[in-house]
Design brief:
The chain has 2 helices and no strands. It is mostly helical and 95 residues long.
C-alpha cells in the first residue's frame, strides 16, 4: 500500500483545482472589462468566456512546466542520495 503525507495531498489539490479556477475567474473578469471598455458591449460576455478559457489553459500549461521541473529536481536528488549510499557501502561503512 502506498501512503502519501496529508500536506502533500492538500497542496496537490490546491495546485490542481484552486489555482486554475482562480486564474480562469481572473481571465473572465479581465475579458469582461476589456470587452466593455473596447466598445463591444454586445460581445463582452463571449470575450470574457474565451479569455477565461485561454487563462485556464495557460495556467495548466504553467503548472505542467513547474511539475516537470520539480520531478527532474527530485530525480537528481534521488540519484545523488543513491550514489552516496553506494559509495558508503563500497567503503565498508554502515548505512
Amino acid at each position: 500500500m502506498i501512503e502519501i503525507e496529508n500536506p502533500k495531498i492538500s497542496s496537490s489539490a490546491f495546485y490542481v483545482y484552486i489555482i486554475p479556477l482562480a486564474v480562469m475567474v481572473l481571465g473572465v473578469i479581465i475579458g469582461l472589462r476589456v470587452g466593455q471598455n473596447a466598445g463591444y458591449e454586445d460581445f463582452a460576455e463571449i470575450i470574457s468566456v474565451v479569455t477565461g478559457i485561454i487563462f485556464l489553459v495557460f495556467s495548466y500549461m504553467l503548472l505542467s512546466l513547474l511539475d516537470r521541473r520539480k520531478r527532474n529536481t527530485q530525480k537528481e536528488e534521488s540519484l545523488v542520495q543513491m550514489k552516496e549510499i553506494i559509495d558508503k557501502k563500497e567503503a565498508g561503512g554502515e548505512l
